[in-house]
Design a protein that fits this description.
With 105 residues, this protein is of the alpha/beta class. The chain has one domain (4-101): 2-Layer Sandwich (Ribosomal Protein S5, domain 2). Helix content is 36%, strand content 21%. It is built from three helices and five strands. The chain has helices at residues 9-17, 53-69, 90-101, and strands at 4-5, 22-24, 27-32, 40-44, 77-82. Strands 1-4-5-3-2 form a five-stranded mixed β-sheet, with helices on both faces. Strand 4, helix 2 (53-69) and strand 5 form a beta-alpha-beta unit. The longest helix is centred in the middle third of the chain and has 17 residues, at 53-69. The protein is globular. The two termini are 12 Å apart. The model has no long low-confidence stretch (mean pLDDT 87).
């Protein structure tokens, strides 16, 4: 399944302002129930927690790869915020996102 990047700043701001976050294992997911199919995703890794761009990009790549490999049956726009203080292994990220999005692998 193809994962599309969310680039619309107004929608991203709305997702940040919405109080509906699903939190599990230091990964937050906020979403709206839009009609976009396949869904749009925005991955956010805070610069405050990971000052090196190499680390932020590594985490983004792992999250996007995990989203690509799991079977997502939902529609809409999603914001994935990585809040952990350390870099989690790929398998742990994939398992956490699968649990959060309530999907089957």
């Amino acid at each position: 399944m193809r994962i599309r990047s969310l680039k619309n700043k107004k929608i991203i701001d709305q997702l940040f302002k919405s109080k509906v976050f699903v939190v599990q294992n230091e990964i937050l997911v906020s979403g709206d129930n839009g009609k976009e199919n396949p869904p749009f995703f925005c991955v956010f890794v805070p610069k405050k927690k990971f000052s090196r761009a190499v680390d932020r990009n590594k985490i983004r790549r792992r999250v996007k790869a995990a989203l690509h490999n799991i079977n997502i049956k939902a529609n809409g726009n999603y914001l994935v915020v990585y809040k952990s203080l350390n870099i989690m292994p790929y398998k742990e990220i994939e398992k956490t996102l699968t649990d959060i999005l309530n999907v089957s692998s």
